[in-house]
Design goal:
CATH architecture: Alpha-Beta Barrel
Distance between the termini: 48 Å
Number of domains: 1
CATH class: Alpha Beta
Strand order of the largest sheet: 3-4-6-7-8-9-12-13
Shape: globular
Radius of gyration: 21 Å
CATH topology: TIM Barrel
Bound molecules: flavin mononucleotide
Number of strands: 13
Length: 329
């Protein structure tokens, strides 16, 4: 009988399928449904730094208090009682009380602002780990890429200076050298990486000539980017990689584990199909393991990482060249 238990960031997950951060992980009822359907762990909906700072600014404007560095701590404790932060801490505590699977909190960071206090509160509220969903806006023409990357390292260092729970960095795929950048995130103190976030996208309506939101949910084929980078990075360090984006079924989950992922996160599949998808994925994984004679996930994790692959160069191939020639028509 295949054993789906797996270790992750020092915890034991009943299976490697995590519910990724989304509306599905934003309230207790939904979290309980996820556990009832067999999820291996949950990443709570992010607490958004932008939202927190906006609230603070709105309140300070109204009250005539000047928004400044010194006041932030004071205001954070005020908001802790009154607004989102307090509610978020409550959700962590309730989730920890009511669920048996690990509860990972999440903060969306857009700067290395002085909000480590929130990270510390998250740890105090009982979260098993903290995922930092980081995206430093790269939209200013005069800001160098190294300055942007340093901001990511700064965030990790600051958070790690105040919490002892594991902290993972959830990043997007848009870096010139993901390898070097990832290593520096770990050197800054990250305990693991989540590859990759999928961002809100903008689309055009060509009838009204206005902008509109792009697809909320991933397509199944989107998994190839995290698959490649999980396979490439797995051989570079021992820190756990969590694969995310485009994981819609059991086969894709198996591929990510073969590439070397320690766990996988699913969101779009749960929205697009139903929570039954969790059981389907687990059963596909267990059946496949039995077929192949693997008793535990560690028996095959990373078996198809770049260095263990029969054709390591395949992972670095990006141009079609010959394949174009092979295409007919
Ligand atoms: C409705 C919705 C809400 C989301 N909210 C968050 C969030 O609060 N924090 C976060 O880190 N990611 C958030 N995400 C991104 C997901 O966690 C995930 O990274 C992304 O959807 C790609 O995974 P998927 O292909 O399984 O959907 C959200 C995604 C969706 C669709």
């Amino acid at each position: 009988m295949a054993d789906l238990h797996t270790s992750y960031l020092g915890m034991t997950l009943p299976n490697p399928i995590l519910a990724g951060s989304s509306g599905l992980t934003g309230n207790l009822t939904s979290l309980k449904h996820l556990e009832e359907h067999g999820i291996g762990g949950v990443v709570l909906k992010s607490l958004f730094e932008e939202q927190i700072l906006q609230q603070i600014r709105r309140e300070t404007d109204k009250g005539g208090v000047i928004y400044g560095y010194e006041q932030i701590d004071e205001y954070l404790s005020y908001f802790e009682r009154k607004h989102e932060i307090g509610k978020y801490m409550e959700l962590i505590t309730q989730a920890k009380n009511e669920l048996t699977v690990p509860v990972i909190a999440s903060i969306n960071c857009v700067s290395a602002a002085e909000w480590q206090q929130i990270a510390a509160q998250i740890a105090e509220a009982g979260a098993d780990a903290l995922q930092l969903n980081m995206f430093i806006p790269p939209f200013l023409p005069d800001v160098e890429s190294s300055d942007i990357e340093n901001e990511y390292f700064e965030i990790i260092k600051k958070v790690k200076s105040v919490v002892s729970i594991p902290v993972t960095a959830k990043i997007g795929p848009y870096f010139t050298s993901i390898l070097s950048f990832s290593k520096k995130l770990l050197a800054a103190g990250a305990d693991g990486l989540v590859l990759f976030n999928r961002y809100y996208s903008t689309d055009f309506d060509i009838e009204t000539l206005s902008t509109k939101v792009g697809d909320y949910f991933s397509q199944a084929g989107e998994y190839s980017l995290p698959l490649r980078w999980t396979a490439l990075l797995h051989d570079q360090f021992s820190a756990p990689i969590t694969a995310a984006t485009g994981i819609h079924d059991g086969d894709t989950a198996i591929k990510m584990l073969l590439a070397g992922a320690s766990a996988i996160e699913v969101v779009s599949a749960l929205y697009s199909y139903s929570l039954e998808r969790i059981a389907e994925m687990k059963s596909r994984l267990a059946n496949w393991m039995e077929q192949k004679g693997y008793e535990t996930i560690d028996n095959f994790r990373g078996l198809m990482s770049q260095q263990r692959s029969a054709v390591p160069a395949e992972f670095q191939r990006v141009q079609y060249m010959k394949s174009y020639g092979d295409l007919k028509g």
